[in-house]
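Dear colleague,

Thank you for sharing your sequence with our group. We've completed the structure prediction you requested, and as agreed, I am returning the results in plain text so they can be pasted directly into your records. Please verify that the sequence below matches your submission; if there's any discrepancy, let me know and we will rerun it promptly.
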Amino acid sequence: MKRFFQSVERDQSFKKMTIKPPNDAAAGAAAAAPEPPVDGDDAWREPSKFMSWNANSLLLRLKKNREELMGLVQRLDPDIIAIQIVTRAFSALPLSNYRVWWSLSENKYGGTALLVKKRFNPVSITFSLDAGTNKHETDGRVVLAEFQSFSLLNTYVPNNGWKDDEQGFQRRQKWDQRMLDFVSRSSKKPLIWCGDLNVSHEEIDVSHPQFFQNARLPGYMPPNSEDLGQPGFTAAERQRFSKLLKLGDLVDSYRWLHKEQEFDCGFTWSGHPVGKYHGKRMRIDYFLLSRQLLPHLTSSDIHGHGIEMEGFYGSDHCPITMELSPVSFSQGKPKDCIDGII
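Please find the predicted structure tokens below.
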């Protein structure tokens, strides 16, 4: 499946888009000129309300859960929506006030999309963790948007798997090293990193710590003890995640505001309702942000709850949101901006 698409305005159409010849430069180009201010507001505001969701196939969710999902978006009114697991781009989404950037995958479990309200205009959009390239990641796992006052990274992080092979531990180790390199690169702008990060950082982030710590693939024992356990909750993954947070000076927005475990509504992934994973839950979806943004953090919430998976809208993940106090711009200059950002 080719991964290069251009938006086409077509009312309520869900047909697959016409594929044009790949043009990486165009795909990562800066957005068009800003639209006029709304309601006479003379200040350009940066996005301040964010939503992220592993939809487990956006196509299926729009077919089977469209009414519920549209109601959620209308109620939350996010400025930016980051989606993971996107198997197809659409000529038009039923969200006419958003523009969308796609990075698709040939793999069933891949693909990301970033929806941005039309009143906001990214400085640039790219699709790789590597600097200086407009190429898309394998499996479409990255959309990186730069705005005036921050950068936003939407990722679908590879699952660790159960084995020490190229599709398991080794793939995840390589990804984590690339993320270390990414957050290590000097940047003048703070970072918001969101998406399905496929790791539960602390014991408080899982419903049954011992169950997940002792989980294993029948008949297989990892060569290293730190790789034993449920993918997303092995000691090795959690240690590398701690290193990422420290090196990037990043803060887990949800845990910053919610210090105690919330057993009913503190997890973003829920196991299959039938079998040994029934009722087993993990928090593996995040909004991380640079520490200098903390004074502007106003909320970070999980919108699903209970083992009945209310608010999951057909996925095995539920939506999460974060809100910052807004940053304004007037005639191209920051107004009430955050110290040290611009």
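Summary note from our side: The helical segments are 24-27, 58-64, 66-76, 169-184, 209-214, 235-248, 253-257.

Kind regards,
the structure core
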